[in-house]
Amino acid sequence: MNHYQPSQKKRFSNLRQLGNIQFWVLGLVTIFCLGLNTTSYGQKKKRNKKHILPYLKNVKTAEEISEIYNKFERLKYQVLGHFSNKEQVLAKKTTERLQEFIVMPILTDRPGEFWVYLEFFSPTLIKEPMDQRVEQYVQVTRDSFRMEVYYLKNPEKYVNAWKNSKFPDLNIKTDLVRGDRCDLIIAHQEDKPGTFKTVPPKEINCEMLTAEGPARYVDLEFELSDDQYIMWFHFYTSTKKHLKQSSENGLEFKRLTEDEMGHLLLKN
């Protein structure tokens, strides 16, 4: 019986075709790997972008925030950033003085939790903040969240902590005092998708322990969106009688872009 045997020429041709196929596959793999490397490098470059302040690596722009679908994730990024009422002051739509505040993420090594440090200050007295606190945001339902308030036992240690590459050591049990009477419930507004607003408390219990004058209790009402906070402060007497409201139209704190933060680096 005669068995078919390919000629040497055909065998060489087949091997060459096989080699071409292997080379082609190898080329695809190489291109694919290069694509992965390029993508990873691009992402890495984005993560390692040089910011004027270290905490900004965890902050998104209003445009980026608007693309977040998950409500809790969107709320988190709305909370973070640098905000100023400069626009409202310059437009003479408020009698309040120029104020700013920064909210930065902290305790990021605690999985499933979201903690922030807030510092409220005058842009002319950055090193002497008017208010400092720590807050934790907890999801209650799909559309509502609780802002838990904590006060610092040693606030001087954390002044301008947003300038540092590493947040000073903070122990929840030993460095913080729980201010549960000032907690707020924040809910998504179905009539204004992508915005959140505080729910009026059943009872006013947030006491201003260092307050001077007739105002003893305060209720903070605010609306939060991708690009701003609008706040209303309601003040009450020691008998919880309504005394005054900070502004009928609210205090508007706009989110600043990185190009608008240069004054933070000046010595004052």
Walk me through the structure.
The protein starts with 7 loop residues before the first helix and ends in a 13-residue tail after the last strand. It has a 10-stranded antiparallel beta barrel. It folds into 2 domains: 42 residues; 212 residues, Beta Barrel (Lipocalin), CATH 2.40.128. The protein is globular, with a radius of gyration of 28 Å. The N terminus is likely disordered. The longest helix has 40 residues. With 268 residues, the protein is an alpha+beta fold. The protein is built from 5 helices and 12 strands. 15% of the residues are buried.
Total strand count, please?
Answer: 12
Average pLDDT, all residues: 84
How much of the polypeptide forms β-strand, as a percent range?
A: 25-35%
Distance between the termini: 101 Å
CATH class annotation of the largest domain: Mainly Beta
CATH architecture tag of the largest domain: Beta Barrel
Q: Quick one: overall form?
A: globular
The portion of residues assigned to helices is 10-25%
Helix/sheet category: alpha+beta
Low-confidence stretches: 1-46
Keywords: Membrane, Transmembrane, Transmembrane helix
InterPro entries: CpcT/CpeT (IPR010404), CpcT/CpeT_sf (IPR038672)
Pfam family, one: CpeT
GO molecular function: lyase activity
